[in-house]
Specification:
Helix content is 56%, strand content 10%. By secondary structure, it is mainly α. A three-stranded mixed β-sheet has the order 3-4-5. A two-stranded antiparallel sheet has the order 1-2. The N and C termini lie far apart (73 Å).
Length: 191
C-alpha cells in the first residue's frame, strides 16, 4: 500500500482483514504499510486500549481476530472543513432530487449538524470544547446506532433561580402555597 498511511487507515485495514476471515499478523501490517514493528504494536495498543476493540491473538492462525465477532470500526472521521463541504454538497444535491429522496439527505445533514458518533468513534477534547462553544450537541451511539448519551454545552438559565426553586421544594411551609398557586394557574389557563 505504501508509505505515509495514517493510523486510521491501518486500523481500518486490520478491521477489514479480520472481517473477511483473515488473521492479520504484525508482519502483514508491516509489509502492507511499510511501517516498523513498533508502529504496528502501537497501533494494536491503540485499537485495544483507546478504541476498546476486543482484539486477541489467535496462536493457531498466527494473527489477530476479535473475541466479539460483531465488533466493527465504524468511525467516520472528518475535519471541520470536510464536514462543512459535505454539508454544502448535501444541500446542493437536495435541490436536484425528488421530494421522496430528500428525506434521507435531510436526516444525514441533521446528523452532521449534531455530530453523531457511532461505535468506537472518538472526539478530541478540543473538538468537544468547540462544539460546546458553537452550541452543538454531541450524540454517542453504539455500533447498532442506539443512543448511549448526549453531551451538550452550557444551557441558558439562572443558577440562583434553580437553587431557590430546590430550596423552596425542600421547605414544607413553602411547598403547599406554591403547589396551590400552580394548580390554580393551570385551572385558569385551561378555561
Amino acid at each position: 500500500m505504501g508509505r505515509n498511511m495514517t493510523r486510521a487507515a491501518r486500523l481500518r485495514w486490520i478491521d477489514a482483514q479480520i472481517h473477511t476471515g483473515r488473521f492479520p499478523s504484525p508482519e502483514d501490517v508491516m509489509a502492507a504499510f511499510d511501517v516498523s514493528r513498533r508502529t504496528v504494536f502501537d497501533d494494536l495498543r491503540h485499537l485495544r486500549d483507546q478504541i476498546g476493540a476486543p482484539i486477541v491473538h489467535d496462536r493457531a492462525r498466527g494473527g489477530w481476530t476479535y473475541s466479539d465477532p460483531t465488533f466493527r470500526l465504524t468511525a467516520l472521521i472528518l475535519t471541520d472543513a470536510q464536514t462543512a463541504t459535505l454539508h454544502r454538497a448535501l444541500l446542493a444535491a437536495r435541490e436536484h432530487l425528488d421530494p421522496g429522496a430528500q428525506s434521507g439527505l435531510d436526516a444525514f445533514a441533521a446528523w452532521l449538524e449534531q455530530n453523531g458518533l457511532f461505535g468506537t468513534a472518538m472526539i478530541s477534547p478540543q473538538a468537544l470544547h468547540r462544539c460546546a462553544e458553537d452550541g452543538r450537541a454531541v450524540n454517542f451511539l453504539d455500533h447498532a446506532g442506539r443512543f448511549k448519551c448526549r453531551l451538550v454545552g452550557p444551557a441558558s438559565g439562572n443558577v440562583l433561580l434553580r437553587q431557590a426553586q430546590y430550596e423552596a421544594h425542600r421547605d414544607p411551609a413553602r411547598t403547599l402555597p406554591l403547589c396551590q398557586a400552580i394548580v390554580a394557574g393551570k385551572i385558569r389557563n385551561a378555561h
